[in-house]
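Notebook, bench 3.
Goal today: get a predicted structure for Fe2OG dioxygenase domain-containing protein from Aegilops tauschii subsp. strangulata so we can plan the truncation constructs. The sequence was checked against the plasmid map this morning, with no discrepancies at the termini. Length recorded as 182 residues. Pasting the sequence as submitted so the record is complete.
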Amino acid sequence: MKSYYQCAMGTSKRILSLIALSLDLDAEFFKPDGSETILRPIHYSGRAIESKHGSDHGANAHTDYGMLTLLSTDGTPGLQICRDKDGRPQLWEDVHHIDGALVVNIGDLLERWTNNVYRSTLHRVLMVGKERYSVAFFVWPSPDMMVTCIESCCSEANPPRYPPIRSDEYLEQRLTSTYKYK
């Protein structure tokens, strides 16, 4: 796990550096060395869970909260994305496994920072009657990082869509709205 973590960290640094350069920023803008990360092994039993969306979901539709998620899978089908999360109806596409490749999801805070230039990835997992294993590597900005629209991502014709927010405040808002206790 330590070796995998180090490789995932190096890969996420490179991807975030390329994203920064694509926005005419310094390669270290997203400060990957100061990031918070979580490495999470995930097991889906193959049995569906009941939800308001039906009973074929291992994970209901959601976006990841941080900057970036790297996902390694065992090749079992079931992962789907919705390219136009604001579209109605939502159209879902299977993510086909490619040996040796990672799935890269953009997170909500990167979407906010870039004023929707980079959109967070709406995704879900459907149960297909087989166990499924994956490893997710979530990358967050440091908790005290202020996420404000990047200057190259807005203009008079395209003003900032989101107010500035601290990374930890956004996480708290999302966790509170996702896991409402009754």
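The radius of gyration is 17 Å. The chain has one domain: 1-43+55-180.
Flagging this for group meeting.
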